Amino acid sequence: MKPHIVVLTGAGISAESGLSTFRDNGGLWEQHSVYDVATPEAFERNPELVLRFYNERRRQLASVEPNRAHQLLAELEAQYRVSIVTQNVDNLHERAGSSQVIHLHGELTKVRSSRYPDQVYDIGCDPIALGDTCDRGAQLRPHIVWFGEEVPMIEVAADVVRTADQLLIVGTSLQVYPAAGLVHEIDAHVPITVIDPGEPASVSRARVIRKGASEGVAEWLTSLML
Question: Most buried residue among 64, 104, 201, 203 by CB atoms closer than 10 A?
Answer without folding.
Answer: 104
